[in-house]
Specification:
With 196 residues, the chain is an alpha+beta fold. It has six helices and four strands, in the order H-H-E-E-E-E-H-H-H-H.
């Protein structure tokens, strides 16, 4: 074992001791706490398996391999795609005990990549809370531009990792939900009372 390996194993042992001290009332508390713990270290976690009120398995968001869901060969694609996945082995499990408390079980604490210097690179950490989404909706109806919406959100939450693309995506999602699968013209006709 060389010096780098012993430093990593020492760091992982310290991490295990720190993680074993955490106990959570709910699954959501566990997800928020563990994700915050690792985002401070420069890693983002995503759920790779769960059973409601039983367990949740978290992996590094760079874990796993790219899955081609469309089945189109690479040479026939119009657009080349990329992936952040590099089969990172990191995995932990949150489990609900018989007493109703959520605890952490260690599966694998090693990463096969460096921690990110800029945590806003991770989409999963840039997501807005439901409260923030309501604020975006309200400000959008007031015709406030996206850059000002983002500035307002950042003033209220200094730790907010969102970028302008996050706000644009939330606005587009709200717009799609309001259309309820209709085209803009169909929604306008329904609003004016001329729709069928």
């Amino acid at each position: 074992m060389n010096i780098d390996e012993s430093a990593i194993s020492f760091e992982q042992e310290a991490e295990k001791l720190e993680l074993f001290g955490f106990k959570y009332e709910t699954r959501e508390d566990l997800l928020i706490g563990v994700r915050a713990f690792y985002s401070d270290k420069g890693y983002a976690l995503s759920i790779c398996g769960s059973k409601l009120e039983k367990y949740v398995v978290l992996q590094c968001d760079r874990g796993g391999q790219y899955r081609d869901v469309r089945g189109v060969p690479l040479d026939e694609r119009e657009k080349t795609t990329g992936t952040r996945r590099i089969n990172c082995p990191f995995k932990i499990k949150g489990k609900k005990t018989d007493e109703g408390i959520w605890i952490i079980e260690i599966r694998n604490l090693s990463h096969n990549h460096e921690a990110s210097a800029d945590i806003s690179d991770y989409h999963s950490l840039r997501q807005l809370s439901q409260e923030d989404i309501k604020k975006v909706d309200h400000m959008t109806r007031s015709r406030i531009p996206s850059r000002q919406i983002l500035s307002s959100l950042r003033q209220k939450k200094l730790e907010l990792k969102a970028i302008s693309k996050t706000v644009y995506n939330v606005k587009a999602k709200i717009h799609r939900e309001k259309l309820e699968g209709r085209t803009i013209i169909q929604a306008l006709l329904d609003e004016l009372g001329g729709g069928t």
